[in-house]
Amino acid sequence: MNFDLTEERQMLQDTLRRFLREKYDTATRNKILNSDSGMSSEIWAELAELGVIGALFSEEHGGFGGKGFDIAVVFEELGRAGVVEPFLDTAVLAGGLVADLGNEDQQAHIESIIDGSLQMAFAHGEPTSRYDLTRVSTSATEKGDEIILSGRKAVVVNAEAADMLVVSARESGAQDDADGISLFLVPKDAKGLTIQGYALLAGGRAAEVTLDDVAVPASSRLGAAGKAADAIEARIAAANVAQTAETLGAMETACYLTKDYLGTRKQFGRPIGTFQALAHRFSDLLIEMEQARSAVILAAGHLEAERGVRERNISATKNLIGRVGRLVGEESIQLHGGIAMTQEYELAHIAKRIVMADHRFGDVDHHLERFIALAAA
Amino acid sequence: MDLSYSDEEIAFRDEVRAFLAEKVTPEMKDKVRGKAELTKADMENWHSLLNEKGWLAPNWPKKFGGAEWNAVQKHIFEEEAAMVSAPRIVPFGLGMLAPVLQKFGSQEQNDYWLPRILSGEDWWCQGYSEPGAGSDLASLKTTAVKNEAGTHYIVNGQKTWTTLGQHANMIFCLVRTDKDVKQQEGISFLLIDMDTPGIEVRPIILLDGTPEVNEVWFTDVEVPVENLVGKENEGWTYAKYLLTHERTNIAGVGFSQAGLSAVKRLAKSEMAGGKPLIENPHFAARVAQVEIDLMAMSTTNMRIVSKAAAGTAPGVESSMLKVKGTIIRQEINDLARRAAGAYAMPFSSEAVEGSNAMIPDPLGAGPVAAKYFNNRKLSIFGGSNEIQRGIIAKVTMGS
Hints:
Radius of gyration of chain A: 21 Å
CATH class of the largest domain in chain B: Mainly Alpha
Radius of gyration of chain B: 22 Å
Strand content of chain A: 15-25%
Order of helices and strands of chain A: HHHHHHHEEEEEEEEHEEHHHH
Distance between the termini of chain B: 35 Å
Oligomer: heterodimer
């Protein structure tokens, strides 16, 4: 066993941490949060230049990583700095699906993703699908050389900024069949595509996406007709590695800020961290943080494993991170007191990132049930 | 022991229900549920409706124009009002300052200020916490020094977490009038007009984006000596008395019941695995667990409030109510957030109003996550839950 990062990953981590510490301070981020686009194109370009996106793709697709630990290293640092730019949506989800399923023409887009010039989003969840990956009602109907897409996609992160959407739709089967789901590349200016955007509580933007008889050429299908379910599940696994690592990084920051505050804030004539009632609760956070780090390692380390092993580890990790996340989010606010309730204080944003992560790709309950079901299978 | 309401209590409940059914409009409910902004005018309107009915000041003795309700009546009103999402009564003047004036204020002060509280002429806010004095309130540093003529106090310093201070024209403050004695023995209780030169109010934006609290700065603010309540340097006694009143209804049972109903409503429309979420055994168990705690909490609350009404001052019990009551309320906020799934992520339904006039969740989850974050304050304000636990331990173990 060896728990050290490879030299390349260690370098990437160091570079990224240094860059974000210098360039992505609280004031900069608050400006981004208050902006109309909810993201900074300069930061995006600079991080692309540093190789952040390239690290998320394998060499065969023009990147230099793409494995579980590459994803985890990048996202832990993004999380530590509370970065809101949609690397997960453009690169891990939509870009990843293009890499996994695309033909040569389609994969040509990856170069533009890696160099930072192309934005993408994955339009998959629907108003009543909750966290089920195979519950797809949006329909795909062949009409001559074209496919007609109709339906509604819910809370599609980065949809407004995306030049192109990866849209899931059903070509056959019942509403929740794994079989029959396809993916399509849909340009943002497609006729019949409506994107109604809104800000997200924890930063960034999402949209309700309505497809009203959107016609795309059959050549825009990613992979084989009706056979996308396995690829979607594998990509959501990668997204969960990214997101749990991001949450781990954010929790590191929450604990760091809390430690600092407990040591400097004085009440009753002494630092509040000297009160045992608070000190023990902080210790509990540190204990849970070690569990969280191990959980992320389990998820990242099994991302390339066979499906059953991979998914069992992913669900275990997402469940554990969701539980620890709630604890760290709530306790770090409570241990601070009122100051942590204010928007301008660093922790407010970090705590929102941590807690709201439980609302994407399955929450604590969903993954607990899934973990049980996978064990029974 | 009798757990059922008497005939008189049932009649009272029916009267409350009829009143609420008539006065609480759908617009008001939406605002209280966070779907639109509850404005100052909305809150003033609600006060005047209650005042017309004689129900604005349930705690006040009749001689001051109050309703003088007993514990059961107060409980009934709070529960019924919360269940229909009626606006809450802004407590600073009615529930916090008034009891202090009635107990420690002069006849002139009562004659002048109490009617203005009922009529809504004055909107009070509370000047207690300071940046360096939160849980350790007695360490407050805002000073009040009498001028040479002896006509005014000159106030300098800063207060913070002043809830709804942006609406207020009056603030009651704890100020330091003697620096050379034990902290608690040099504090006085002053009434200050917010329009006095030298006062500046700056909003603090909370993590859910709301401008609910403020910082209030005082620079050489002149306050007439007539505005001192009680005796100089005895303000700490009054402050402690006020805090026990701040903690009545601190359990927030009515809010919890309303919140739990809202969670159930939402869980009936949100879908999981092709079925309503409320049918998911895991989620249903979470809801049931909180409901069981709340049933007991409601009875605990009644037991303690009845005892207080019988003349026993609420002491350690009010601390217990605060801790358990806020844990339950926060748990319910957490359930609402979970129930909404991905639709908890949008900033709030307000965020999209006006742009496309579309509420993101067609199934009706409002700004549940914003509420969840906003209500993290419940375990922090009014004496944090850690301070309450300290009080419980100190009183019961004499440590």
